[in-house]
Amino acid sequence: MEFKGIASNLVTLSILINCFSQLGETSLSFSVFANILKKGFQPNAITFTTLIKALCLKGQIHKALHFHDQVVAQGFQLNQVSYGTLINGLCKVGETRAALQLLRRVDGKLVQPNVVMYSAIIDSMCKDKLVNDAFHLYSEMIAKNISPNVVTYNTLIYGFCIIGRLKEAIDLFSKMISENINHDIYTFNILVDAFCKEGKVKQATNVFAMMMRKGVKPDVVTYNSLMDGYCLVKEINMANNIFNTMGQMGVAPNVRSYNIMINGFCKIKMVDEAMNLFNEMQCRIFIPDTITYTSLIDGLCKSGRISYALELVDEMHDRGQPPNIFTYSSILDALCKNHHVDKAIALLTNIKDMGIQPNLYTYTILIDGLCKSGRLMDAQKVFEDLLVKGYNLDVHTYTIMIKGFCNKGLFDEALTMLSKMKDNGCIPDAKTYEVLILSLFEKDENDKAEKLLREMIVRGLL
Known about the structure:
about 450 residues; mainly alpha; 26 helices; TPR-like_helical_dom_sf
């Protein structure tokens, strides 16, 4: 344009800034801005907002705030979109408190807050599980006559769902309906998923039915949530029906769909059905991921097909899907259950050499395996090592160790472990007491057993 003698104006250059900003070329955006100033154009709020957005997209929120301060100091005015962009940028990098402070700073002084600013902070608070704070901010919006939109409601409904307060989520959903705010697929998917995660598949299907009645077409996320819910309550046939229905409804399954079904089949030891799906998945050119392989390996291990599971581990390496600690934990568990504890120890050493850090679950499997193989001293050594390394041992790990002592008739050591457990802030559960009490009664240590039984009753565990 310029070579042809067509002079650029502020609009042209602002568009160019926006193009560079979307491409992440922040330095070029600011070069164009320098050109604007050089040509004597008076930049406006749109130009400044575009530059602020460019910095926010790159995660350079503090540079964006500094630029804002410079702009305001020079007497330029910014608008609601500018501040909405800054607040959203702060929220995206987890600076929720700073975003709220900025809202308070501009409120009525620089610009009037709008639904975009409030919704961004409400969303950020919900993701931080500060749902009560988010709800207070929502109430403040309404008090200021700022109407919440579908985004505001979706974020709040999601917030209540992730902390298990489904009643409040449903109340907000009802409020949306009463205020004629069109709920979208995201609203329905949040609720379907929340009910399914709680194992309340009937309520989830009611939401699904409402969704269909209102003409909102379910997507792969909706179907995946329903399948996951049915698998959770071990109604695998219902999950499989939904999996088959998806295709008939014109919704293509994705890798997660297959993972849910493979995991569901493996959990109830229908490993051949899981293998059929795994093969079908590859025929349909879906690439199995670490989750697919790990679910299948776990199912094979629990069905005693360790050699095939190990072949799949090799296949994972060949396909560039490195096994993780959960994959290896399944194999360790199978080795220990089949009394191959030395092989399990060797595998654990290899895992560490590969730079994979074992977790508490992995070590608990090994401790259990050692105890059941009569190698109590080795189990105790691993247990004590975990304490020294600062692992936050859970009730399951302590109970396994207590059971190990009881099986060897070392009741004083078992009771000492119970005391140590309490001292370390780990509360014994019904299983812990049950292991001790049954072992003590078997050895005619009735007084000690009855004392623990009374303690169990006092704690409300019986």
